[in-house]
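Hi everyone,

Forwarding the result from last night's run.
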Amino acid sequence: MSIRLIPYNTKIDFVGFRYVTFTLSLAVIIISVLSFGFKGLNYGIDFRGGYILEVRLPEKPNVPELRTKIEKLGLGEVSLQDFGKDNTLLIRLERHDEKGKEDSTVQAETLGKIKSVLGAGVDYRRVETIGPKVGGELIRNALYAIGFALLAMLLYIAVRFEWQFAACAIMALMHDCIAILGLFSVFPLEFNENAVIAILITAGYSINDTIVIFDRIRENIRKYKKMNLGELVNKSLNETLTRTLLTASTTLLALLALYFWGGKVISTFTLPIIIGIIIGSFSSICLAAPLLLYLHLKRGEDVSLQDSIVRAN
């Protein structure tokens, strides 16, 4: 027996309150862009530059305890993660400058403090310094990755559907990406390589949800050739609403468990994905589909745009 979170004959007028959702989305974009312009992003070690140490300890370490000890050194941002074997760690330290001291001196002092915490018998397998130039290249490559992902999705939707669907999907995806970047800028959360992954995961989830809704709209366009477009979009959204809510809620349950019980590193990674899924579901329902009203879709029995909007209201 199939599970339905809402009654089968639900008729929520998504198209009717589109101006409210459009205004809300526009406000989010404006706030995000302004915050990004004035505050920028709180770049992490991956982008700002720092030190990376791969160390093999004599025995399996207590990572939270070790992280606390290193943080007490006052070296700035510190990241520890398992790397391969149980007793191997990858330690990332924020790069910082001290007035009147050479970079090499600061690096030597920093590594000396780390070694004093780790103790004897540690095998330092790799010690690397990431400079600001490398950080700049990483930022550029991250933006390229997001841009190419959006372009690939645009081409896929344009081939599978019509260009109107692709245009609406990309506008919704851009809204999602800007909103996530705004989230990192407004609060401000650390923007690192995990943040880029979170944005791409959000984009993938959002486009999957949007395609399911677009599939139903296309199916209904063929089935109800005389129904005006506004009513047809509402009907399609209500028919797919249970699926959208079930997918989002089950995904969020898993992510919330990771957020509350997964530890600090996992929590930092899952928070933007949690918010991204909420934003992605919102944009699929309240942005991508209603925007189709403003593009001239080809139909068997063509209905004018103005007529579609008036009858939908």
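The chain has a mean pLDDT of 80.

Cheers,
N.
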